[in-house]
Amino acid sequence: MPFAPVLHAELLKIRTLRSLYGALVAVLAVAAVFAALAGTSDTAEPGFDPLFAVFLGIAPAQIAAIAFGATALSSEFQGGGGLRPALTAVPWRGRWFTAKVVAVALPTLAVGLLTGAVSLVVGTAALGEAADGISAAQLTRGVLACGVYLTLMALLATGLTALLRSGVATLSILIPFVLIVSFVIGDAAGGAVDYLPDRAGQLAFQQHTDSSLGPWTGLAVTALWTAAALAAGAWSVRRRDA
After folding, report:
1. Are 89 and 10 in contact (CB under 8 A)?
2. What pLDDT, in 10s, does the model give residues 186-221?
3. Hey, which of 56, 88, 91, 168 has its CA 20 to 30 A from 29?
């Protein structure tokens, strides 16, 4: 079977799961609310970063993106799911998994870019004059990075779900990790924390950083983590029974 109809089928599956719509809406809503709170920031604080304040909502919004990536695949395993019929219709497992990954990436990227644009408008308005020091190039980078980063985190969850065959297990690992573990490790690990998947990608939302990684190289590190998770997930899909 050609790739295009397989991708079309996977996109239709996502459209039929209302919980997935909720996750994508949550990405946008959470980011917008936190961007509006940028106006409450103490702009006189020495370490204040106006760019980070504008895109402050991306950190909590990534939880919804992770849930979207995990749920999009875990639905195939629940209650018998659709994995066995899907692999019967598409016996080329690699092609099916690739279609699933693309079906997760496309809506996440679209919502991520929209989230970045909304965060820019709301966040800069909330900051007022404090946002004047942010260059157009930095704001553009922030918007583009929103789309890329949220997509990478959703795909990281997809890859882990394929490997673990459980959305609950994936969420139980990733959500505590991005909310707690990476910050705890960061206090003890110094600069090494910048190479964790979430912390590396979020460097793109900082106006100035002391990290050895730049904004785009940080996203590249996150992409490597995601690629490793997807490779492990693809191996699991190929080698394990449906």
Report:
1. no
2. 656 566 778 889 989 999 998 888 778 889 999 999
3. 168
